[in-house]
Amino acid sequence: MANELLPAVRIEPKGAEYSVIWLHGLGADGHDFKPIVSDLNFRNKAKTRFIFPHAPAQSVTINNGYVMPAWYDIHGIGEEYEQDEAGVRLSEQRIKALIDYEASQGIAFDKMLIAGFSQGGAIALHTALRFAEKLAGILALSTYLPLHESIAKERSETNRSIPIMMMHGEYDPVVPIRLAEMSKQHLFEQDYSVQWQTYPMEHSVCPPQIDNISQWFDKILN
After folding, report:
1. 67-122 pLDDT, tens per residue?
2. Dihedrals φ, ψ of 112, to 5°?
3. Residues forming the active site
4. Which class is domain 8-220?
5. What is the pTM of this model?
6. N vs C: which end of the chain shows fewer Cβ within 10 Å?
C-alpha cells in the first residue's frame, strides 16, 4: 500500500534537525548507499538523519521479467520507450509518505533533501518537483527525469526554485549521458536552476564526486 511506510536503513543522530531520504538504484536496496555517509563531510552532518528506503520487489521488463527491488518497471532506456507511469506515481506516493513521516518526527520540510541514484534518482526528481511543501533540494545521480511532459502541469509552485544537483558519468552505459542531458534541458525549459557535474566514470560514484556532494550538502543543509 502506498500509505504504508517503506522499510528503510536509518542513520539516526540524536537531536536530528535535517533529513536526507536517499533512494537506491534498480536491483539494489537501502544498504547500497549507507557506506557513503561515513565519507561525507559537511557542517551539519551530526544533525542529519539519513533514510535509505528499500524499494519493493517486482518484475522488471528490461531484465527479462526478473523480480528485483525496483521503483517502477522499465521497458527500455530512452524517451522512445513506454514509461511505467503507474509505477512511477505509486513510488511517488510512497516517498511522499516518508517525507510526511519525517515531518511528523519534527523535521521541517525545508530541511529535507531528496537524493537518488539511477532509478532512485528518477523518483527523487519526479517526487520533489511535485511536492506541495518547500524542500531543501534534490540530488540526482546518474539519472533522468521521468514523465517530463507532465511536469509543466503538475509541478509545485512552492518548489520552483528548489536547488537541483545532477551528476553523471561521462561513460555511463546504463543511463546514457545524453538522456541525462536531455532531462537537464527539460528542467531548464521549465525555468529550474540545475547544477550539472560530470565525471570520467561509468554508472557509479567516484571519490571526487563524494567530495562535491559534501560541498553541496554544506550549502543546502544549513
Report:
1. 999 999 999 887 778 899 999 999 999 999 999 999 999 999 999 999 999 999 99
2. -115, 130
3. 118, 172, 203
4. alpha beta
5. 0.96
6. N
